Amino acid sequence: MKILFSILISITFAFASDATIEVIKKVDSLPSIAVEDSSEYKDETFKLKFFKTLIADLNVLSIFNVDRYHIISSYDTNTVDVRNKAMDYVLKYNIQDYGDGFLLQMKLISDGNIILGKKYKISDSKKYMFVAHTMAYEINEFMGQPSIEWIKKKVIFSRIVGPKKSEIVIADYALAYQHIVVKGGFNVFPKWSSQKQDGFYYTSLNEREPTLKYVDTHTGSVKNIISSEGMMTCSDVSDDGSKLLLTMAPNSQPDIYIYDVATNIYSKLTQYRGIDVGAQFMGDDKIAFISNRLGYPNIFSKDLKTGYIEQMVYYGRNNSACSANGEYVIYKARESSNAFSKNTFNLHMISTKTDFIRRLTASGVNEFPRFSKDADAVLFIKNYKNQSSIGIIRLNHNKNYLFPLKYGKLQAMDW
Amino acid sequence: MKKSIFAGAVLALILSGCSSSGEPQVDETKNVDAQQVETVKTETVAAENANVEGSNEGMTSDSNEMSISSLENELESVYFAFDKFNLDTNAQEKISKNSSTAKNEASAYTIKLEGNCDEWGSDEYNFALGLKRADAVKKALVAEGVDASRITMVSYGESNPVCNDKTKECWSKNRRVDHKLLP
User: Closest Cα partner for B57 from B101, B109, B6?
Assistant: First the structure.
């Protein structure tokens, strides 16, 4: 009896303790990385700024447990600082003066061996964050993770700075670099004209009629594209940059139009006499758009070949913005409908091929979702308690990051 | 009894230690070639572009300016319910009064209707809602005899608030259509 009892207890303990240890191990399973600064650069503030940017980038990769201590060490040896002996990876980098910019060398050390080495040069040290972003991108590639081109790209956004006053700004994804490109007056809805990010469209509300303009970022030239009474917005640009989806409202009837950049010819895509706005390309032959044809704003798709229109979202009573990539659509849903208190808007993701649905945010006003081209991340605007921020959701890692604006309120953006 | 329990516990501990979840696999190829110098692309971004072509609201002479702004003050703003663009009786009364001003004292000017929304949402849908509000006012003005070709419309969405408090009074003050006069 006693033997049987003790055998049963030992078997129970065996399985029970295994389950507990398994849970703890999962949380801790990201490899650790520490960063050692071996810079010969004179400016201490700059060194610390660069270090912090690099740490933030490595954190956004979501594949490491990043140690935040600013440790100074020598670049020449392959041995790591004694405080980092237990780290899985150590990244050493060295910044040297180079005219108005700097040279950077880096090496990634694991187990006493250098596994990756790179050199970078930049001619303007004010753009230091782009070096950190490129380093993070290349480390991510080296670790065999899915590509994250978006970390190297520029974001363009408009922010409201006063009633009917706004600025259009070009920035990196973390808002560390900001360059105001359109100032004065009321200019909204900026949109990159191509993947190369060598020009952008925006809507000017300073003229007699809302006008779509195009700016070439290399020459700084501005060109009027098209005007319309009531509303004039570029909602989306096709992947090759040859076609635009516009929202125009002649006779105050907001509808979606497709515009050919080369020929300036456009044609109307929606006929409903209510509100049809916010179209997004879904491949070459289909668009997703917002319409209130059911009495409330919701997401629909239209096949451009057959003209067939289909409702895409069957949840919620107010879904007023969307972004599409491949089979996935992210949309903004109003979660409370209160005229007398603060409202919550959250982002949800659905698949067009299955009935998969997932909520991506939890609180505040989350709007203006924008998929990255590689579908790895979603950029969005978060307004919460008077603070306006750009948010990034890493879809595969289930993590959100927020980058607050120092002043102004975000109106629209693109990357 | 104690011995067997102790043996059982030791056995349990030994067995539980044999978990088989592997360490995350990392690519350890020892690629140490550090000779390549990679320049990060530094694109020059357009210089600031202070393109402001403001509408010339009564800039011809001082007296002209005075009369336009005093007439604008006579044209009362029209207010709307949450998420709606239809006119209630209060709004209808204001529009009747405004149409009289528009047909008489302000008959020389073009009327620009500006649609506005409260702060919930800066996307295109909200701009369209503001526009629909302006359109509702336009249709009512036309029904009262104002010439449709004299009326132009624009929407500012939530970007032109008259107040910024987070109160229901403020939000209801922002859901409006304003009237401006253009020469």
Answer: B109
